[in-house]
Design goal:
The protein is about 30% helix and about 15% strand. It is of the alpha/beta class. It folds into two domains: about 40 residues; about 375 residues, Alkaline Phosphatase, subunit A, CATH 3.40.720. Strands 1, 2, 4, 5, 6, 7, 10, 11 and 12 form a nine-stranded mixed sheet that branches. It has a four-stranded antiparallel sheet with strand order 13-14-15-16, with helices on one face.
């Protein structure tokens, strides 16, 4: 722990030697510590008996990027260790193929199409107009009228903290306005300029200067994934005697692809011809992510709260398969395509959940689940009712029955996706999964594709022409869902 976390030490060490700039910086530190201290006061017997939540969200991590999901290059012993102690889901999905909509679905339990949050903040207000279709103007700010899971937990006495990537709106919609007692690092930006301290600069996104706030006074060579974990550990130290919700959202493994030099060299030597994963710089980033998941697991054990702390590990969309610095970033094999696409590689994600005393160690669940399901699941785990008005149009289902019995089935007819935007991997599209069957409908030419995921996880054999009746029924159901949630559609150029 850095010595400046101790305010008494900080006051003594800076006495008589402050510049105006340093005074302001130290004042900011002390204010943050006071906010942490204030936030964890007021514990009640009722709130202390409820489980803690540590929700770990990776950014752009693909389904096949970690060891227990089949990576042939990346070493993830700590995430694999979590999986051995928890339940691993094989058919877990992000509600969108890009970041912000999925994050909104986690916070609200609702489909991005219902929220009109179907693309990231920076692109929400100014869709491109040089393509065949014009995407809709969407909601870049997560509306305050939506009741977030953080608000529900905070109202029930939880200490709520967000660390890392937010990307759900401008400063008036930052985590502090959405139910979090503490926000460290969360802004409207989707990625840092660099993963190395001081995490700021320009030249990557149209000369825009970006930074990650509240991470001052690092050292040269300090790595963002490590530093965010430092902050998370500090929060758990402060909140250990109270029920807490830690929303730990790493920027890893989003671009820029920057690993620690020693790890980059390690994986450079490990790459072999024929491996699906070939990017050793990306592998180094996955390695750092895994190390820090290990630090979180170790801290939970160290604090003696492991028996009452629920851990969720997830990613916000599929792996990014496009190029960075002229190299393909990752491979989602055996899944097709990647981030931005509604093929499996764009939306199927790793999901691991550990609920002490409930989930069986090493269990595996094959039931299709989605990021819309976390909100009602947390309600089910805590016994909280939540807000009845918000719940009335919530799309997710509680995963509690699956966590108790991985062979159970959810009472859900289908899962849906809607991405009325362009990305290097796709044109505007919607899709539906019902049982083993998946249909995609593309809006530029209105063509459809049909796949049997049980027999064809790689979506290589389009059955739409061979099975027109099945395709017709799924398309009709998909269209009905779009109407029910008032999904925004792209329009033709005039």
């Amino acid at each position: 722990m850095n010595s400046w976390y101790n305010t008494d030490h900080g006051v003594k060490s800076m006495a008589g030697s402050l510049t105006r700039r340093n005074f302001l910086k130290y004042t900011a530190w002390f204010a943050a510590d006071i906010a942490l201290a204030a936030g964890v006061r007021g514990e009640t017997k009722e709130s202390s008996q409820r489980p803690n939540f540590v929700f770990i969200l990776a950014d752009d991590l693909g389904w096949a990027d970690i060891g227990c999901y089949g990576s042939d290059l990346h070493e993830t012993p700590n995430i694999d260790r979590l999986a051995r102690r928890a339940m691993r889901f094989t058919d877990a999905y992000a509600a969108a193929p890009v970041c912000s909509p999925t994050r909104a679905s986690i916070m609200t339990g609702k489909y991005p199409a219902r929220l009109h949050t179907t693309v990231w903040y920076e692109s929400s207000a100014n869709p491109p107009r040089n393509r065949k279709l014009i995407p809709p103007v969407t909601q870049g700010n997560m509306p305050h009228e939506q009741v977030t899971i953080a608000e529900v937990l905070k109202d029930a006495g939880y200490f709520t903290a967000h660390v890392g990537k937010w990307h759900l709106g401008d400063a008036a919609h930052y985590p502090q306005t959405q139910g979090f007692d503490v926000n460290i690092g969360g802004t409207f930006w989707g990625a840092p300029t660099t993963f190395f301290y001081p995490y700021g600069g320009s030249s990557r996104w149209g000369e825009e200067f970006r930074y990650v706030p509240h991470l001052e006074f690092g050292a040269e060579g300090e790595y963002l994934t490590d530093r965010l974990t430092n902050e998370a550990l500090r929060i758990m130290d402060k909140a250990k005697d109270k029920s807490f919700f830690l929303n730990l959202c790493y920027h890893t493994v989003h671009t820029p692809i920057e690993g620690k030099p020693e790890l980059v060299e390690y994986y450079r030597k490990k790459v072999k011809p024929g491996m699906h994963h070939q990017n050793y710089e990306y592998a180094a980033m996955v390695h750092s992510l895994d190390e820090n998941v290990g630090r979180i697991l170790d801290k939970i054990d160290e604090l003696g709260v492991a028996d009452r702390t629920i851990i969720v590990f997830f990613s916000d969309n599929g792996g990014y398969i496009n190029k960075f610095n002229k190299k393909a970033v990752t491979s989602n094999y055996p899944l097709r395509s990647g981030k931005g696409s509604l093929y499996e590689g764009g939306v199927r994600d790793p999901l691991i959940i550990r609920w002490p005393g409930v989930t069986k160690a090493g269990s595996v669940c094959n039931e299709p689940v989605s990021s819309i399901d976390f909100y009602p699941t947390f309600l089910g785990m805590t016994g909280l009712a939540g807000d009845s008005k918000h719940n009335s149009d919530m799309d997710g289902l509680s995963l509690v029955p699956l966590l108790k019995n991985p062979a159970a089935k959810l009472e859900r007819q289908a899962l849906y996706w809607h991405y009325p935007h362009y990305y290097p991997t796709t044109s505007p599209v919607s899709s539906i999964r019902q049982g083993d069957w998946k249909l995609l409908e593309y809006f530029e030419d209105n063509h459809i594709e049909l796949y049997n995921l049980k027999k064809d996880i790689g979506e290589q054999n389009d059955l739409a022409e061979k099975m027109p009746e099945r395709a017709k029924k799924l398309r009709k159901r998909l269209d009905a869902w779009r109407k029910a949630v008032n999904a925004q559609m792209p329009t033709k150029k005039t």
